[in-house]
Amino acid sequence: MSTVPVLPLHMRRDGFGPAAELSAGRDAEGVIRIDTMFGAEAWLVTRFEDVRTVLSHPELYSNALVPPFRPSSASRAGEEEAAEIRAGNLIGSDPPEHTRLRRMLTPEFTVRRMRRLEPRIREIVDEHLDAMEKSGPPADLVTDFALPVPSLVICELLGVPYSDRAGFQETSRRMLDVSLPPEERAAADVQARRYIAELTAAMHDDPGEDLLGMLIREHGDDLTTAELAGIGSLLLIAGHETTSNMLALGTLALMEHPGQLALLRDEPDRMEAAIEELLRWLSIVHTGMFKVTTTEVRLGGRTIGPGELVICSLPAANRDPALVPDPEDLDLARGAIGHLAFGHGVHHCLGAPLARMEMRIAFPALLRRFPGLRLAGDPVYRSFSAVHGLSTMPVAW
Amino acid sequence: MSAPKTGTPRVRADRDVCIGAGLCVMTAEEVFDQDDDGLVVLVTPDPAPETETAVRKAVRNCPSGALSLAEG
Ligand code: HEM
Questions:
Q1: Distance of CA A138 to the CA centre of its chain
Q2: For chain A, which residues score pLDDT lower than 50?
Q3: What is the mean pLDDT of residues B52-59?
Q4: Chain B neighbors of A103, CB-CB under 8 A
C-alpha cells in the first residue's frame, strides 16, 4: 500500500530549476500531453507566451471547473466537503465571482499599505537574527529564519495568534503535500477553514484593526462564515509557505554564486533587481491552479477540446529563451518585472507586494548580520510539495 | 486639455478590469497610482516622453489587461 508516488513531470526539478526533461519538452513541443498524479491526463503548457495567454483568459481556461482535490467518492459527505472547500476560494473561482472577492482584499495589499508594514517587518527580521546569533552557530535557516519571519508577519496582518502556529503550519504542509491521498489533503483544507471560522466567530462582537477584523467590519454582510474562513485560510497558507521558501532557496542560490553575492552585499541598490531575478530563476510555485477549458481552444499550434485539463509550468516558462537570453543563468543584475513567478492575469499573486517587501528587508539584513554565512550540512529539498522549497538548511557563520 | 506630446501615446486605464496588483505603480510611479481601494488611477494620461519605456513596460506587464495605449 505504501508505494512512493511518481512525481509528475510538472513538479520535477533538477536542484533549483525545472527538470531537464521538462525544459526539453518546452523546447521541442511546448504544449505536452502528461499524466497527472490522480490518473487523469492533462496538457502541460511550458512556453512563456503560451502560459501568459492561458493566464490572461479565465473565460477560456476556468479555475472554478476544476474539482478541488478531486474527491474520489461522490458520497454525500464528500459533496458537502467539496462545497465547504469551494466557499471563499479566491484562487479557485472565475470572474465575476473572483472579482467580487478580490476587490474586498486589494485595499489591504497596495504598495502604500505595504510601506506602512515596513518598520514592523524590520523588527521581526532583527529579532530572529538576534535569536540566531545568540543560540548559534549552527542554525537551521529554514526553521530559525525563513519560515518564522513570514509566518509571524502574515499572522499579525490577519489577526491570527502566532502561538497557534504548530497547528496551522502542519495543516498547510499537509495541504501542499501531493504524496498524501487526496482525502487527507481535503481534510487538512477543511481543518484550516474550521480554525479560521472559530477565530472569526470570536471576533464578531469586536472586530480589530487587522485584516480579518476589516473583512468582518466592512464586508460582514456580504460574506458567509464559510467564505470568510476560505479567504482567511488561503491567506494564511499562501502567506507563509511562499516567501519562506524564497528566503531559504534564495539564500542557497546566492551562496552558490559567491561573486554575485559579494556584489550584492557591497551594493545594496542591486537588491530590487536581484529579487526579481531570484523569483524568475527559482519559480517556487510549480504550476499555480489547474484549469479546465470551457470551449475548444487553439494553443501553441494545438487544438484542445472543451473540458480538458490544462496546467501551466511556471519554472519552464520563466526559463524560456523567449523571455531572457541564457535563461539557465542566474544573473542578478538583469532582474526585472515581467516574469511569471507570481502568475499573470486576474489571479496574479495578491501578496506579491508583501512578499517583495519581506524579501527586500530580510535578504540584506541576513547578509549584513552574517557576512560569513555558509552551509553547515546538506540542505534538504521538499520534493512532493506544490511549492518548491527546503525542509532544512543547516548554516554556520 | 493639452495636446499629447509628440510620439508619446496616451494611456488608458480600465478600472473595471483592474485587480489592484500595483505593478504599474512599481514600474512608473510618475504616471500610475493606486486609490484607497487599490485600483489604478492615472497621475497623467499623457506621460512625459522620458517615461515612455517604463509606461510601455507597465502596460505590457499589467496582469489584468487594464492598461492600454492609444497608439498613432
Ligand atoms: C515570493 C512569494 C510568493 C510567490 C512566488 C507567490 C506566487 C503566487 C502565484 C504563482 C500565484 C498565482 C497562482 C495561480 O495563478 O494559480 C499566487 C496567487 C496568490 N497568492 Fe501568492 N505568492 C507569494 C507570496 C504570497 C503571499 C505572502 C501571500 C499572502 C498574502 C500570497 C497570497 C496569494 C493569494 C491570495 C493568491 C490568489 C490570488 C487570486 O486568486 O486572485 N502570496 N501567488
A1: 28
A2: 1-2, 70-74
A3: 94
A4: 20, 37
Q: How many CB atoms lie within 10 A of CB A114?
A: 22
Q: Which residue's alpha carbon is nearest to atom 9 within ligand 1?
A: A342
- What is d(CA A93, CA A360) in angstroms, rounded to the nearest whole number? 31
Residue-level pLDDT at A72: 47
The atom number, within ligand 1, closest to the CA of A105 reads 35
ipTM of the complex: 0.89
Give the pLDDT of residue A145. Answer: 97
CB A150 within 8 A of CB A243: yes
Instruction: Write the single-letter amino acid at A332.
Output: L
| pTM recorded for the entire structure | 0.94
A35 forms bridges with which residues in the sheet?
A41
Residue A252: all three cell numbers together: 542557497
Contacts of B25 in chain A (CB under 8 A): 111
Q: Does B38 touch chain A (CB under 8 A)?
A: yes
Q: Is A85 in the pocket of ligand 1 (CB under 6 A)?
A: no
Q: How many CB pairs under 8 A join A and B?
A: 56
Lookup: cell for A247: 528566503
| Structural domain spans, chain B | 14-70
Second CATH level (architecture) for the domain B14-70: 2-Layer Sandwich (3.30)
**φ, ψ of residue B26 in degrees (nearest 5):** -65, -30
Best of B34, B43, B68 to disrupt the A interface by mutation (most A CBs within 10 Å)? B34
- One of 3.30.70.20, 1.10.630.10, 1.10.1040.10, 3.40.190.10 is the CATH number of A9-396, namely 1.10.630.10
Cell of A217: 467590519
